[in-house]
Design a protein that fits this description.
The protein has nine helices and 14 strands. The chain is an alpha/beta fold. Helix 4 packs parallel to helix 5, helix 5 runs antiparallel to helix 9 and helix 7 crosses helix 9.
């Protein structure tokens, strides 16, 4: 039985607690949170012991789930890693690139598993298409959210866009060549809305727009590749594929299209989207990586790479505002 402790039981931490209680082969040992009001509420509701400091909880566990604010990630992760505990940490991996680099180094030197909470990798809409032969050459992303003070200790790049950066880096098997970025701070002291263009060495281009001051919610990614378009709606859990019809597309809706190169038969399909709880699934993958000694789905290196691009974007935005 894998002993798990949760560090940080605020809004998202409670979701993690709910899911850990339903996951097999796991014993939820307890939690740590410095907020007395929150801690009392959680202790009573979940009938879980509150540990009065992080180190005592870490000592009592095989693995920890860190759902504390970003500025606490480094210290908590480092403490757990040095004690030989497996670590799940919410995104972003750390607060600064130096902290992230140090954590990657510590994991490499240890014998522990680390997973970063890029939960959109486990979104059922993404799962429904990720096993296709995805080789996008143009990517368009819109991630819009209504304003919420929670999470605004970091920019919209590190709060929202980093999910899409992580997915794009996992899809495009090429190094980043160029980044263009613009962003504006509206409700906070860091960018709340941003528009980004990322060019890769293989010719792929990704355009990303993220906002946390929108009137409506949207989380959509569109992938364009040779002979195919793939649409992923992370918010409404839907996906769509439009491509040249092949022998495997018997059940797809199809129509003929006249082109300069003759008639083409186009197939339109909506892949079956599994009914899964993304947070529970990512935690189960973390558990499985520990038990089976296999790589984590979103490793500390993945978390570092997403942070690296995010910080390059922030640097570009900062430079642009200074030069205005």
């Amino acid at each position: 039985m894998l002993k798990i402790g949760v560090l940080g039981v605020g809004h998202l931490g409670k979701f993690h607690l709910n899911n850990w209680k339903e996951i097999k082969d796991v014993e939820l040992v307890g939690f740590y949170d410095p907020n007395d009001v929150t801690a009392q509420e959680v202790s009573e509701k979940y009938q879980l012991p509150r540990f009065l400091n992080a180190e005592t909880l870490i000592d009592a566990c095989d693995a920890v789930d860190i759902v504390a604010p970003t500025n606490y990630h480094y210290d908590l992760c480092k403490l757990a890693i040095l004690k030989g505990r497996h670590v799940f940490v919410e995104k972003p991996l750390a607060n600064t690139m130096d902290e992230a680099k140090e954590l990657v180094k510590l994991v490499k030197e240890s014998n522990i598993k680390m997973q970063v909470g890029h939960v959109e990798r486990f979104n059922p809409a993404y799962i429904s298409v990720k096993n296709l032969q995805l080789n996008p050459m143009f990517i368009e992303v819109h991630r819009l959210a209504q304003f919420n003070p929670r999470g605004t200790e970091v920019s919209v790049i590190l709060d929202l866009m980093i999910h899409d950066i992580d997915i794009i880096l996992s899809l495009v098997k090429s190094e980043v060549k160029y980044i263009a970025a613009s962003g504006v701070a509206v409700m906070t002291d860091t960018p709340d809305i941003a528009s980004i263009r990322i060019e890769f060495n293989n010719g792929c281009v990704a355009n990303l727009t993220s906002s946390r001051i929108s009137m409506k919610k949207m989380r959509k990614m569109r992938l364009f590749q040779k002979d195919a378009y793939i649409g992923i709606d992370f918010l409404n859990k839907k996906s769509e594929i439009i491509k040249l019809k092949g022998p495997q597309d018997l059940d797809a809706f199809s129509f003929d299209l006249e082109t300069p190169h003759g008639k083409k038969t186009i197939a339109v399909s909506n892949p079956l989207v599994p009914e899964v709880n993304a947070i529970k699934l990512e935690l189960e993958h973390f558990r499985d990586a520990i038990i089976n000694n296999t790589p984590t789905t979103v490793s500390e290196v993945d978390g570092y790479r997403a942070m690296d691009i995010a910080h390059q974007i922030l640097s570009k935005i900062k430079s642009a505002s200074v030069n205005v």
